[in-house]
């Protein structure tokens, strides 16, 4: 091959590489516009025709040319970008993939330039013949040219179609942006420009001018509490290369309110992965949010009801019956803990896997039909053994938005009841076996009197069958003269539950009658409800005949009783107290609705001031329609129901008298009334109460006077002190020692008078009840008092130790008086030469500690106990009460200054707060003041 031929071949070789490269770009563009092609030569730099030329020929043939190596690197980068674009296209990010073609075009241009550069260098260097052998040349054949032409034609068609589609899509987007109720937005991430559709105005009320065209128009309208986290969240998605953003936040309306919106955004990236645009929509979910919160609250309330329900309840979720909600009663019933929540039923209770209860649960879940069973036998594993228990079960489908999501279970264990019933059935068999051998007639009825059982003795005596005897069949053998009496007695027992006892005659199978003693008692449950009657009939015919012999004696005894009755009547008629008997009239439910007097002595008639014939003939409501609303009427009903006697004073308006009545129960329908005319005593009592009210008013006036007098006396004392000081100053140097002594005595007397007036004024304040209560932190109050007494504490070098004190309800100024007077008192009465130590503690005590001598007081009452203890001179405990009285002093004025009013003020303040104070002391061992404030 000559040089000219060799150069021509080289040019042909590189032209073929350029053509293959063009085929690669066309294939890539066709793939990104929807063509179904083999993507391997596009995404793999080794499978590409140019790649095969580079690695199979050119890289070794032109190894000494540096640009050839750069060409290989650019070719590899080109396919890497191509693979990224294909992956984006497959992921549905078509726009991003097609935009990436521009980036790839730049790399492709670099590849073509490098091909030209390498070609030129090869021609200059004239490489060896074997290196440029046509056998190794890259060849593009006719088929590839035809494919390139077909791909170009197909690509043109697809671009044209997709351009039309894009135009339609843009038009459709504009229509959607106008038609949707959502606010559509378009954010240019490069310029921060922002576009909004008409929905923004509809949702938030802003005009076209008010919308704003930058991202600031959006961020500035975020709720202040949401702004920081929303902005951070959207930038986090953008910065991390994410493609989707979702947030729920509050956005300002033009009217000043806030809408809750659900905002979705989609981020577009260029071929380098750089975000350049973001599209999104804002949906107003304010009402939906409110409804969701309401549903959440309802669900919370519903689950709270379940959790606090006294019956065992739980909710299973899903077809696997996952424990969703279970209350304490249910956990206790199945002997499990809250760890079962979130676990399937069969994992928690594997022992019921093959039990039909699983089928029942599934049926309720699938059909929505409820299931109820009053006596379901269910196995449980206890201590490794299967234990069968009985339950009353109710399964109900849980329906949310028309879809069954679970099953609610309500369970009540009835194992004891069922076991008891089974035992009763077994006992009934034993009962029949035993009663059949008894000589008496034994029978049993239902609560309504239906006879359902007779023993063998009945059938042997009467000759009747069960069908002839059941229900009221027993009446057929009863003597005709006894039927009405026996029926009424039996009816009364059924209605009242009272024991049944009667003597009657039964006809024997041979037609003869014999006397029987019939007795029956009701069998009641724990609630007192009758669920069966058991009776016996004992043959007393022989005893009955013998009793006739005693009849005469009975008559004699009856005459004696009659005489006793006459004696009792005489006592009633001659008694000075009114005595009457009333019958309480009840409705069918046993409730008292009226009454009448059936017996009254002369004193009773006189006391009520009503003619006897009216008193005994009229009902209570006829004489006083409101009688049962009065305290007297209520006392009558209370005594009848409880059986406890009552004592009440009642003003009888018709007679204008006060009566004191003692009410006693005679039986379930009758009361005995014993009353005395206490009109004169009552008038005295009312007069006394009026006098007490007047006394309280007088005391109040005296307190007001003391307050005013103490206040008005301050001015004269002040003038005395002022003029005394002036006189003393004017006579300075001219006063004898005796005159100066007189001035000193006058000043001290004035100071004592001033102190006394101040204390009287403070006592007046303490005596004035202040209804305005507030919370007082005693810790702060003690600190304030110590600040006021700072000089006195320093002079005494006193140590004050105060523990943590409670907060109480009280009058701020009066509470300060308490602590100020008690601490001042402790400082004043300290021991000479001993550093005063004052300790203030607090605790909560009960009624027993507060009132150890009065155990009848409510034991549940609690008190805040404040103790103030000092190490002062103390006093004899015999004077513990005297020290709280006005002007009471245990020491002379020469020893300790004071007015004797301070502790009286303390007691008055404590009493104002419904508390009380005690002092405990010993001479030389200090004093403890204990203050009890009731805890409201």
TrEMBL record:
**EC class of the enzyme, as a word:** transferase
**Molecular function GO terms recorded:** phosphorelay sensor kinase activity
- Which part of the chain is the Histidine kinase domain? 708-936
Source taxonomy: Bacteria, Pseudomonadati, Bacteroidota, Chitinophagia, Chitinophagales
Name the PROSITE patterns for this protein.
HIS_KIN, PAC, PAS
**Which reaction(s) does its UniProt entry say it catalyses?**
ATP + protein L-histidine = ADP + protein N-phospho-L-histidine
- Residues folding into a coiled coil are 138-172, 547-574
Protein name per UniProt: histidine kinase
The answer, when asked if Transferase is one of the entry's keywords, is yes
In what residue span(s) does the PAC domain sit?
245-297, 500-552
